[in-house]
Write a structure and sequence with these properties.
With 238 residues, this protein is mostly beta strands. Helices cover 9% and strands 31% of the residues. The chain has a 6-stranded antiparallel beta barrel. Strands 9-12-11-10 form a 4-stranded mixed β-sheet. Strands 4-5 form a two-stranded antiparallel sheet. A hairpin with a 4-residue loop joins strand 11 and strand 12. The model has no long low-confidence stretch (mean pLDDT 92). This is tRNA (N6-threonylcarbamoyladenosine(37)-N6)-methyltransferase TrmO. Keywords: S-adenosyl-L-methionine. Belongs to the tRNA methyltransferase O family.
Length: 238
Amino acid sequence: MSVSIEPVGVIHSPYKEKFAVPRQPGLVPSARAEIVLQGDANTAEAVRGLEQFSHLWLLFLFDQNLEAGWRPTVRPPRLGGNERIGVFASRATFRPNGIGMSAVELKGVRQQNGNVIIELGGVDLVDGTPIVDIKPYIPYSDSLSNAQGGFAASEPQTLPVIFSDSAVKQLQKGQAAYHQAVISEVLAQDPRPAYKKGKTDNKQYAVHLFNYNVRFSVSFDAITVIALEPIDDESFGE
């Protein structure tokens, strides 16, 4: 049996590429995002009563990975990128049907230019990700106090983030505080490959967040934002 899935909307977020996207929702609480509903789902009737809830489950497609296929085992970053476990014992992006899920904060619902827009916080999705379903988060059933987290039982450690003087000057006026907070929370997770962590690293990295090419370096005890180079696009949140 085959099933055809039609996305109900698309997400707009600060993350313009896969690199540096938080590995779980809620790790970058300052980040705002929006789902723009589409097709038959783009109606106010479909979100009636949604604002009674503080959080939502999002089901989405790892659309940038679908063509690459999948394997039955993966190497989770939390295990150093060396140990293999079954794909169903992980939240790896390369999955049989390419479906992901995230619990995110609901900030509000609005209508604009004929579109129903759901405002979110704490997302971990790349800009443009197709959303295939939206469900309310139910605390009494979805939050299990006796649950065990396996190899991901605790939050990942973070590093302090330092902005160079030139990088601070490059922050856009009006959005400077918001952009700096999101960039700090993203980079604090140390987005480098797992095998790089805990080793001397003289390489300079870059990631596309908002409309910046964020250049940064990593030492043992801190991450330094070297420069914020503007990119001419229509990024969310500017």
